[in-house]
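Dear colleague,

Thank you for sharing your sequence with our group. We've completed the structure prediction you requested, and as agreed, I am returning the results in plain text so they can be pasted directly into your records. Please verify that the sequence below matches your submission; if there's any discrepancy, let me know and we will rerun it promptly.
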Amino acid sequence: MIKVLLVDDEHNVRQGVKMMIPWQELGLEVIGEGEDGDDGLTKIMSLSPDIVIADVKMPGMTGIQMIDAAKKRGFDGKCLILSGYSDFTYAKEAMSLGVKQFILKPVDEDEMIEVLKALREEIEDEERNKIALEHGSEYMSERVVQALLLGDEKALESSELSSYDHSTYTAVIIAAAESMTAEEKNTLLNTLKKRMEDDCEADVITPGFSGMTAALFKDMSRSLMMEYLSELCKEYPDRIFITMGCTVSEMSDIKRSYHEADELLKNRFQYMHHGIVSRETVSSDIQETAQIDEIIDRIYAYIEINDTDRLNDALDRFQVSFCRDTYTAERIKITCITAVMDIKSKLIKNIGDKKTEQFINDELIAKIGEQTSLFEIIELLKTTLSELSSAHFGRTTKSTMERVVQYIRSNYNSELRLEQLAAIFGYNRAYLGKVFHQYTGENFNNYLDSIRITEAKRLLEMDEYKVYEVAEMVGYTNINYFHNKFKKYVGISPLSYKRQSRGESAVSDDEEEIDE
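Please find the predicted structure tokens below.
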């Protein structure tokens, strides 16, 4: 972080400048304030700022005199002078001291931001040149490298590129963990920057925002680069996340490599557990899988049959489903919270057991919201839902067919097919149908219809629901199909049964059945 010192005898001016500038976004930090020229000189020599922002006219020592005294004592930082129109006669004297930047009062926010950006770039370029002299290696100025990464066409015309000729270029972004403080991030990234410059002669820059560093690797194979970056991840577990763009052979395509790395970075919530990702890594994760709603249904099914292995496998596929599309961290968390609340509602409805609250509660919801990666959420759900499944459904040692029957009785009101049951319980469809018939004495469809019609009779007797409502409640989406099934099993129509249950006469076959 570039250090800034403010020197002005007016407290309100200093506070105004501090509040109007987005210091951290610019990679700057205000490390102190001087109340006048004498105090400012003392602070310059003790704090060693990179940039001094000073008023020209102050009581005692003027801003110009202060800068002159500081330079005679070895200060070599940058200076930005604030002055009024009447004070501009000091400009010539200031220029003789190397001061190039002036801003007229009242200070314009946009103007000051642009001047500070220019000073920052100047300092970074000087640091880059210093490194080049120390290492005797070919390093580019950060300004030019950043322009190449961001696709600034003017960068390609820079004289610095005359000898910048390499066979391949690969952009890499390194992000420090969000849980780290700003100081910790800067220390870590500066360490990594020096290391990469020494090890690989990579051009490493900070692309205008804190907590991240961009590097341009040259003439290095992807396998060797992946091996090198993986070692960094192992050395700093859970502290850095790295994305690697495509490898290109033309300088004009460097921006494409950087864009790819940047797009991967936007989805780091999904891929954080990898440590380092590239398009190859992501492609290996993305596979054909069911839609999220279908996976949630499977998760619930495996909870009911207490199959922990398949439950964990379904949760793994649940994780992969978020990697197929662009999901924000907030959307992923909301989807996961909605899923567990749906599971809770189904359990309470089907088994009426308040024990569910011990596992799916406000504490779990809060934990999901606190996680910093999708992987952490999935691991949390694996533990919680496995424990919930064992508590509800692991008390007895049921045979597989008992578990199938229990599952049907709990889910008769949803769309059930033998193919679904076969997939859930890991059977061939034809084999499951045969074994089910042997166990129950009925085929699957008849058994399901029997349960649904029995429940329909109970609901009709309650006289609280219309016939079409009862049909939907027991799992029939077509009212005519329900009517025919009911009449087949009971001998009369649903409306006739409803009327008879309250002591009224049944309707005739010729009467149109319109529920009242």
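Summary note from our side: The mean pLDDT is 84.

Kind regards,
the structure core
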